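Supplementary notes for students who missed Thursday's class. We covered one full example, reproduced here. Read the sequence, then the structure, then the short commentary at the end.
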Amino acid sequence: MQLFIQRASVYASLVLRCGLAVVILWFGVQQLLNAEAWTIWLPSWTAISGIAPSTIVYLNGGFEVAAGTALLFGFWTRLVAFVLFLHMSLIVFDIGLNPTGVRDFGLAIALLAIALREEKKSVL
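Structure (token representation):
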């Protein structure tokens, strides 16, 4: 078992990156498919923007699909992960310390870990 874990460790960053990308993609796609249902999550300050709530959700969903896709395929990985970390941090700040906020905090920290990891040539 130890030999397997040692050999498989080269895939750790790939597994983390792809797992987070799938989560981001899921949320982005859900927002694009049913924007109205997601408007309840918008912070109150978005009302002063003059933009329709569903439009804000569509823009956010499009951003998350684009960023999740880039993360999944390894395009600009560290930059995208850092931008997603900032995005998730804003969500955590807005939602607060409740089960959803704590989950999103964990996702934000995992994205920060990807953004901070050393660039090195690996298997993938």
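Commentary. The chain has a mean pLDDT of 93. Helices lie at 2-8, 12-33, 35-38, 53-73, 77-95, 99-116. If anything here is unclear, bring it to office hours.
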